[in-house]
Every structure is written in structure tokens, then in C-alpha cells.
Design a protein that fits this description.
single chain; 380 residues; Creatine Amidinohydrolase, Chain A, domain 1; Creatine Amidinohydrolase; 2 domains; 5-stranded mixed beta sheet; 16 strands; globular
């Protein structure tokens, strides 16, 4: 989980970006409330998709704002100085619109902020928050709070790396289970169920498991999405590209599993993907243009006779999927120390089948660290 120390560091970095006259910030995106306080609504609770706000005051408290049922549905321990909790449901009376309960909680602290210069994460706030609270005159036009937080999200703090590493270990366990059970006669959905069990056992708590759990073959070399009732058969390749989400953070890595003995052609395209991944890894370092990484991966595949390859080569990872930096040939992004990124070379060849592989990496001050440790191989 995110720590108090980590949340305070992220808030400090945010205040350092803000103009000196800003005295308060109202954070409205649930991911950013989590990022700065550790509060997220458990995705398997009945309050899933309900919102809270976070009020940050310069040299003052961090205040979580929400209704009683949403705040009690926290996914894990969170770190704030105050809570403004509006009673929405008391098991005795009818309920009002839940958005109005959140608005009422916010309105109760209006006197503390309305005559001071501040910033609202306006893209994530409702029009009612901005207009009915009459905060337009108080809000700075020169500071984009939402974009500032998104920029900060790229460079992960220690507690974020530790939480992401938990996601990676759980994802590793799922791949290890797939290596045991992928065979002729099992369905995509049965594999998903076994992988999910292995993931949650490793994590030691509930979480989300989503992604591609699909078989491909010579006739259908590319398929994606959640598992179906399709029964795997000899000659298929099973692409498992999935994420494990714990407290809002996620892993995302891939292997392709042969059903039975892979053909020589299937092994060749797999080997070409692996070579492309290793070639691109050399370019994973701070200040490197993402376009260079993508082009190295693509050109390695092209030199092996598969080209031109201009597909998506990787992306950033954290509270979103995908998120910056984006590793594609025309990307304007550069890698930063603290980025967590993926590389995912793929080949889909009619008459042979499809292969995709993927690792997750932390960009360090002098290179990279591989965070995912599953065995990348057609046969285990």
C-alpha cells in the first residue's frame, strides 16, 4: 500500500510546481486522490466508481471529503489529516443523490477556501462544483492542476515501486500457473480462473485481473480480449497479456504459450520477438527518446524479415494503462528516471500464428531494472 511518507513526498513535489500565490488545491480525479493520500475505493465494493475529493492546503492539512459509505469502502489504509464525511445512508432514511452528498460535504468547508487563491482539478470536477460554489474568481488560470499531477505520476516514489512490485509478483505467479496448465483440451476461461486464483493467492488479498487471454493460430493470428469458452487445440498459441491491479496500481506483462510442440515457423517468430525486446532494452535509460526505443525494436524485427514494423512498442504504467511515456515511432516523449514502462514486441503472421511478449521495467538513474520475472518462452 502507499505510505504516509510517500504521500507527503508527492504533495511536496506538487506544491513545488504550483505558483507561490496558490493556497489550496482541490483534487477531484479518484486516481489522483489515491496518488496523494492513499485513498481509493475498493473496486469490489458496492461503492466502486463513487468519488471523493481531496483538499490540500498550503502549510496546512490534507482533507478527504466524501460520503460515509464511500469513505468506509477504502481499499487500504490512507493518509490524511482530516475527514469531512457527509452522511448519505443511515439504514433508517431514504437517500439523496450521492453526488449531492459529496457536493454538500465540499460546501461545508467553502468558508475556509473561497476568499483564498486556489486551484481545482476542473476536468475531473462537475460543473456544479465550479459554478455553484462560485470559486471561479479564486481559481488560478495559470496552473493546470490535473496536468501537473499527471506529470508527477511518471516518476514513482519508493512506496509506489513497492506496490507495483507486489503487482508484478502476483502477475508472475499467474504466468507460472499458465505454464503448468496450458494444453490441448482446456478452455480460455478455465485458464483465466486458474490464473486468477494463483494471482490472488500470491497477493494475499483481493484485486482485479484483466487483459488478453486468447488463443490464436495460423488461420486467426491475432485475437484479444477477455477469455471465451474456446477449447485450445494442438498447434494453437495462447497469448496471455494481462494486468493485476492492487490499490489502483497495476502490472502488465505477456507471454505466448505453445499448445503442444510449436512449429519451426512459430519458434522463429517467437525468437525474433525476443531478439527485438533485448535490442530495445539497451536503449532504456533516462533522457532517451521513446521514438528511438520504438524504432530499435521495430527495425530489429524488420531486419529479421518482418517489416516494416510500426506497431506500438510499449508504454508507461502505474495508475493508468497505458499512460505516458508512449513508446512508438513518432512519440515526443523522453524516458525519465522513475518511469515504469513496458516493452512488448509482437508478430502476427497469417499461416503461422501470433506471438507477443512483454516485460515491465523501472527506469533508473543509470539504466533500467526489470520488474517482471516470468519465464518468456513458448514451451516451459
Amino acid at each position: 500500500m502507499l505510505t504516509s511518507e510517500g504521500c507527503q513526498k508527492r504533495r511536496k513535489r506538487l506544491w513545488e510546481l504550483a505558483p507561490s500565490h496558490i493556497e489550496w488545491m482541490l483534487v477531484c480525479d479518484p486516481r489522483h486522490v489515491n496518488y496523494l493520500s492513499g485513498f481509493s475505493v475498493h473496486p469490489l465494493s458496492f461503492s466502486h466508481e463513487e468519488k471523493t475529493f481531496l483538499l490540500l492546503e498550503k502549510n496546512g492539512p490534507a482533507t478527504l471529503i466524501g460520503d460515509n459509505f464511500t469513505i468506509r469502502s477504502a481499499a487500504s489504509e490512507f493518509h490524511v489529516d482530516k475527514q469531512i464525511v457527509e452522511q448519505w445512508y443511515d439504514h433508517k432514511h431514504s437517500v439523496i443523490n450521492r453526488d449531492d452528498a459529496l457536493f454538500n460535504a465540499l460546501k461545508s468547508i467553502l468558508p475556509e477556501i473561497q476568499n483564498r487563491s486556489g486551484a481545482i482539478e476542473s476536468r475531473a470536477a462537475s460543473w456544479k462544483v465550479v459554478s455553484e460554489l462560485n470559486l471561479q474568481k479564486s481559481c488560478s488560470d495559470e496552473f493546470d492542476l490535473g496536468n501537473s499531477i499527471r506529470f508527477l505520476r511518471r516518476q514513482k516514489e519508493k512506496d509506489e515501486i513497492e506496490l507495483l512490485s507486489e503487482c508484478m509478483k502476483a502477475c508472475d505467479a499467474g504466468h507460472a500457473k499458465a505454464a503448468e496448465i496450458v494444453r490441448e483440451g482446456i478452455s480460455e476461461f478455465e485458464i483465466y480462473l486458474e490464473v486468477q486464483k494463483a494471482v490472488l493467492t500470491q497477493a494475499g488479498r483481493t484485486g482485479l485481473v484483466y487483459g488478453d487471454f486468447r488463443a490464436v493460430n495460423a488461420e486467426l493470428p491475432k485475437a484479444g480480449g477477455l477469455p471465451t469458452d474456446y477449447i485450445l487445440k494442438q498447434g494453437d498459441l495462447f497469448i496471455m497479456d494481462y494486468s493485476v491491479v492492487l490499490e489502483g496500481y497495476r502490472s502488465d506483462f505477456t507471454n505466448t504459450y505453445a499448445v503442444g510442440t510449436p512449429s519451426a515457423d512459430q519458434q522463429h517468430i517467437f525468437d525474433h520477438c525476443l531478439n527485438a525486446m533485448h535490442a530495445a532494452e539497451i536503449f532504456l535509460e533516462p533522457n532517451r527518446a521513446c521514438s528511438e526505443v520504438a524504432n530499435e525494436l521495430s527495425q530489429t524485427l524488420e531486419k529479421a524479415g518482418h517489416g516494416p514494423q510500426v506497431n506500438h512498442a510499449g508504454h508507461g504504467l502505474g495508475l493508468g494503462h497505458p499512460e505516458p511515456p508512449i513508446i512508438v515511432p513518432e512519440s515526443q516523449d523522453q524516458l525519465l528516471s522513475g518511469d515504469v514502462v513496458t516493452l512488448e514486441p509482437a508478430l502476427y503472421v497469417q499461416g503461422i500464428g501470433g506471438v507477443r511478449i512483454e516485460h515491465n521495467y523501472l527506469i533508473t538513474e543509470d539504466g533500467f531494472e526489470t520488474l517482471s520475472h516470468h519465464n518468456i518462452a513458448l514451451t516451459q
